[in-house]
Amino acid sequence: MKPPPLLLGATLLFWGWQSGLLVAAVAMAVVLESANLVKARWEFSDEDFSRIWTFCSLLFLGSAVYTFTANEGPASFSGFFQNPNPLTQRAAGRASSLTGASLSRWLPIFFFAFMVAQQFSTRRTVPLTTISLILRRRRKQALKLRRPLPPERNVDIGYPYFAMCLLAAAVHPGEDQSFFWGLCALLTWALWAQRSRRFGLAVWATALVAAIALGFLGQRGIGQLQRYLENLNPQWMARFMRQRGGFDPTQSRTALGSVGELKTSGAIVIRLETKNDASPPPYLRSASYRRYGSPVWFAGSSKDDFQIIPESPPESRTWPLLVKTNTASVNIACYLEGRGSNALLGLLPLPRGSGQLENLNAYLVRTNSAGAVLAEGPRLAVFDARYGSGETIDSPPSTEFNSDEDLDVPEREKEALDAIIEELRLRGADRERALQTLGGFFADKFSYSTWQGRPRTRGTNDTPLGRFLLTTRSGHCEYFATATVLLLRRLEIPARYAVGYVVHEGSGRKYVVRQRDAHAWCLVWDERSQTWQDFDTTPGSWVETESKRASPFQWLSDAWSRIGFEIAKIRWGQSRLRQYLLIVIIPGLALLLYQILFRRGRKRRQDREEEPDRTRLWPGLDSEFYLLEKELARRGVPREPSEPISDWLERVSRACGLEDLREPLAGLLRLHYRYRFDPLGLGDADRAALNREARRCLEILASAAETAPVGR
Amino acid sequence: MTTLTPSTAREVYRRISDNIARVMQGQAGSTRKLLAALASGGHVLLEDFPGTGKTTLAKALARSIDARFKRVQFTPDLLPSDILGVSIFSQRDQLFHFHEGPIFTNILLADEINRASPRTQSALLEAMGEGQVSVDGERRDLSELFFVIATENPVEFRGTYPLPEAQMDRFAMEFALGYVQPGEEVAILTAQAKNHPLEELKPCASLVDVLALKHAAQNVRISDELKRYVVDLAGATRAASGVQLGASPRASIALMKAAQALALFDGLDFVTPEQIQELAVSVLAHRLVMEPQARFSGLTARGVVEGVVKKVKVPA
Description:
The complex is a heterodimer. By secondary structure, chain A is of the alpha+beta class. Chain A has 23 helices and 25 strands. In chain A, strand 12 and strand 13 form a beta hairpin. In chain A, helix 5 packs across helix 9 (158-170). Chain B is α/β, with parallel strands linked by helices. Chain B folds into 2 domains: 1-219, Rossmann fold; 221-316, Magnesium chelatase subunit I, C-Terminal domain (Helicase, Ruva Protein, domain 3), CATH 1.10.8. Chain B has helices at 6-23, 28-39, 54-64, 80-84, 118-130, 165-170, 182-191, 207-218, 224-239, 249-265, 273-284, 292-296, 301-311, and strands at 44-47, 65-66, 69-73, 85-90, 95-100, 107-111, 132-135, 138-141, 147-152, 173-175, 205-206, 243-245, 289-290. In chain B, strand 4 (85-90) and strand 5 (95-100) form a beta hairpin.
């Protein structure tokens, strides 16, 4: 099946118009269609086609790799494997679809060489074995086993190329209907050439119009469905993300009231390195929250008070958060998981009292009054946090009565809280005593558990927190932290709910923080020092309990995470992987192209190298005849390496008009040959004769040269 | 056995080739190769179009030598026993008597060899390779001079069985005669206007002469360097692209022996590179098995060997 003339050219032009590569498309169309005018044809063997095909495929693969990296492919995918959630899945999907789209757009260019080879080959088809790996293997096997070869089949790749161009044209930025109608026109053209003569023109046209109408309605329907889903999507996605993603500066959805086992993962989320063998900070705080509405902690008024921190000095990658004395420094590596408007963003986990962030590759750093530091930048953030005791970036508790968020207690929880306060006789107690009593109370009477049973009584209006405080007295850190914050607030002590991580696992100076090390605790306002203090009432056994839940295959996921981290470091750190990749791909492709085109040469060169070196000297190489040969070569008639001497001498005497030399040369050659190739060799007299004759010929040559210049 | 000196051997060669030249106009080169094969103990396959004088050349050679000559026309129904011979039970003395087939001769013309079935073709394998045949489990030696000239027609393929590679390898040389120049063709017409000159051809050499020539060819010296050149040529065909199966060591041996004979014809008692180059294509090309792809792209075995001769450095 051959496409009708001009169809491929028109399709290429259509593709160029749709994908914005019109100049290239015009050139390609002209080359392709010129095959109908130009009569010159080339004789391509199967091997030639095979080479061109390999080149096209390699070009395609190389471009695929490059495009994949250009669309943040490896980064998106490493995130997806390390922490599979809807967000990373979407990022990976987006990278794949971007890669796919930009590759399809270039498809006609990648395989153009192959198409041109077919158009300008004498047979105007290509062997099927070139394209089909299965057929090629079958053929090779048959050759090896000396079985009869499967029959050779040739195909015309005109229509597949036509389809490829249409597919490529489908990836177009335009929103109008031009693609659809262009596609219809081209398909009609292509089908017209192939229509069955059994049916009348009217039947054919009706069927075609029906198909086009169905196609038109179908694509409109799909478009509408897509728009509907797009509108539906954001809310749905957002709800999903809040439940399973990282920390959100605006709210923290707790598992308070959830029944069953709390699921945690052993994936490494933060890597920590201390300086000068100092002990690491015990807590890394990501955010704190002010208002509780079971089961969610909200940022309250600090939700909207994010302030941009200027990089100072500019371009120094140093972000001062607070003017203070920092006594310690720690290197933290974490991932920014959230997708901002134009970059990735995430909350930085920071030690208490962080004053300055150094070496941080970020575009933008913001903080809010609840001590959250939101960074916008590449996916991996590696930085040094300098910190010290004392002041923090959190705002002091608000004193206004109306917005006294740091003392706010939901009405529903008050009953249970008051019961505990009564039980502990804390009413009116000062801060020191309250902290001490509460610490002891939670440590003695409560146990850590990630499992929550179904409440026994139903229909009562007790809250999950009430059940925890009064009945179960067992729960995970969110219960403890929430209960403590609310109890303190009930005692008129300002407190906030903090989330972050606990650092406990590591060796030497290096520490890792896993997802299951995520923790919640409480911040208490200290009136005297005017700072927020960490106050953690979760029983200390929780770390151990959590560690027990580690999977036996954790080492494997750790190794995987390490690889991902190293890749991410190359990708997002100071190195320029993509440039390296380009540097590797281009010479690699060039080398492959060279090898494909000159494989024959390579094979021969190898064969030559494999030969044992002929250091052995053959007899007779000191013959004086070689002086004559050298002299004649100097005069412009060298002997070809594969030319026997007799043929060469014939040529010499003909070309240079040295007829006089013919006779003496023949005699000299006989002697020379005997000296060289007769195993018996030459006697002394003959050896002397060879010497004499050679010199005589040289003399004749010299005298002849004086009269007539020798030349080819 | 008398050993001829190079000059006497050259004289014998001259006599035979002149005699053949009376019938075969313009085929001096082919005659030279044919006689080289004869003197080196090899066999010859002539592949050419009908009517180019293949059979005439074989017959002319047979007639020039005072030796036994048999001709077998190969047909699809030819049986091995038709060539080798058969034992027939004699009623008279109640014994089996072996009746020799046409293979028991000095010069055998196997006309259109590719028309016989592979079974019959392979009956020739042992005879050509080892100078003996085994019939009814009994080994029978062939005469000391046993020379096969086989012919085949390259254009017709219906009802033919291409010679298997092993059989091809048994032929020392394969060459075509080709069409002669117009002037020579006119001479042929003139010569055959009344009767065929072949009928008037008289033997000019005895069997003993030919055997002496063979012996003399074996005594022609060849240096290690040229042996290495022969091996390099054969080896290069194995590495050449488009070649599935290169020349075998048997090919190297054949090339060396034929070059020895040719050196003798040139009046030399040692081999020079010229003789090796002259024979390389005829001796090596027919043994190569080309890749099907290479065949389709127009590459021929002959072209490969010619390329190899041009590539491999010749000792000088």
